[in-house]
Amino acid sequence: MSPCICVYSQDSTRGKIVFKSLEANGIEPVLCVTAASLKETVSRSAADFIIFDLKDTFWDGLAVLRDQSKALRGTVIIVLCDAARLPLLKKQTALMKNILCAPDPLNPDFIVSMVDYLTKERAKKKVFSHAL
Amino acid sequence: MNEKISEDVVGQEKSEEQAEGTASDAGPLGLDIGTTNIVVAENNGKKIKATKELNAFFSIPYSNLIKRTLVKDGVSFCNKDGNLYIIGSCAEEFATMYGADTRRPVESGLLNPKEEECIEVIKAIMDTVIRKPHQRGETICFSVPGEPLDRSTSIVFHESVIRMHLQSMGFSPLSVNEGLAVVLSELAGTNFTGIGISIGGGMCNICFSYLSVPVITYSIQKGGDYIDTMVASAVGLPATKVKLLKEEELDLSGKPKNKIETALHIYYDELFSILLQSLERVMGTSDKMPRISKDIPIVLSGGSVIPKGCREKFGKAVRDIDLPIKVSDIRIAEKPLYATAKGSLKMAMEEVGA
């Protein structure tokens, strides 16, 4: 079964790149371009994964990320960010156990293989580990 | 006299009905507003039909007698402020008759600021080449240039004028970047990933597309006209004469045989070098570039890539630069003059779910 995935990016180009890459691999994600639409989407149906782009909205995005991480403990959140901000991101998200980081340059193949791997792991264990 | 050239863009056999475009025209339209030509593409069920018209005009002082003659001969024209504006391919014939050059409503890819009547003229040419919508709100997708790299001008005015006129004709218009249209037309085999470059008369449009997402789009305001002008000044010939030689005789694959060909080789090299250096710079500094493991193709379209040997010359220039992606191959569009209109049509069809 195809996982339920939300792609959240305020940068429409980056969002669409990730969206189309997943789509090309048989996954049908939902693309959200605002925090409000992300919240609405995940409140309607629980997402297995959120691809969360922090690149251009680091501090504002971080606040949304914190909320979502707390509210959606069963969801794996793959965070895309500027490579230079990775140490800061790791520090800020140290207590969030459902976060994975994928720093720039944006690597659609890597994101797809990450989702693929985690989906298979999930199928094996039936649920996601919260201690990723 | 209003010559329109119909062509099977996908190369299937043309039926009389389809060639005449009378019975089965249906569905959305694709439109390419170029500096030199305006091309309309339409899907009539089995294949794509394209119609091309010269984007030029020639003005003569108004007289009732001339007007009646033009009407009788089926010449396309519009009438404004005491002048008759002969439009499309007929303009070239009149210009030759008067020993003068045609004028252009579009220059360097955008509405010509030097021509007072450019808006009226381009509307008139569009009216001759675009059929009326079968129903109000029919979709038409038109190509727009990328923003010029040096930001010396903007595409907003140009795009808005075209959009408003299409709306007034009863269409529901949407726009597509010209470089992306080339990708949509030619790179279905790579899932619309690659670099589409349209080298037209007035400008080069460049788009790096990833899975049909236009990641990088821009234009440079140099194209075939630049080559013609530079060669003309180097060899002391009129630019129109150079253009004719370029279009009919030029072979870039061999050594130049005379002074004009030498100059044409030099200025093709220069244009490709300017274009590729800009591509190297833009791709190398963009923070939007994804990491791509596969090699990607470059596809060239537009009237300026028609001369034999263009692909090889461009390929040689590509080897001199350092792009952040690996190029798998360089292709020339199947029909270089029609690729943008065909890509625009594909976008329109996608929009309406056809």
What does this structure look like?
The complex is a heterodimer of chains A (132) and B (354). By secondary structure, chain A is of the alpha/beta class. Chain A has one domain (5-123): Response regulator (Rossmann fold). In chain A, 47% of the residues lie in helices and 17% in strands. Chain A has five helices and five strands; from the N terminus they run βαβαβαβαβα. In chain A, strands 2-1-3-4-5 form a five-stranded parallel β-sheet, sandwiched between helices. In chain A, helix 1 (12-24) crosses helix 5. By secondary structure, chain B is an alpha/beta fold. Among the domains of chain B are: 57-103, no CATH class; 187-332, 2-Layer Sandwich (Nucleotidyltransferase, domain 5), CATH 3.30.420. In chain B, 37% of the residues lie in helices and 25% in strands. Chain B has helices spanning 16-20, 64-72, 89-98, 118-129, 156-168, 178-186, 224-235, 239-248, 259-285, 310-319, 339-352, and strands spanning 5-8, 29-33, 37-43, 48-54, 57-61, 77-80, 83-87, 106-107, 110-111, 138-144, 171-177, 194-199, 204-210, 213-220, 296-301, 327-332. In chain B, the strands form four sheets. Chain B has a six-stranded mixed β-sheet with strand order 1-4-3-2-10-11. In chain B, strands 14-13-12-15-16 form a five-stranded mixed β-sheet. Chain B has a three-stranded antiparallel β-sheet with strand order 5-7-6, sandwiched between helices. In chain B, helix 7 (224-235) runs antiparallel to helix 9. Chain B starts with a strand and ends with a helix. Mean pLDDT of chain B is 90; it is low at 1-24. Classes of the chains: A alpha/beta (132), B alpha/beta (354). Chains A and B meet through helix 1 and helix 5 of A and strand 14 of B.
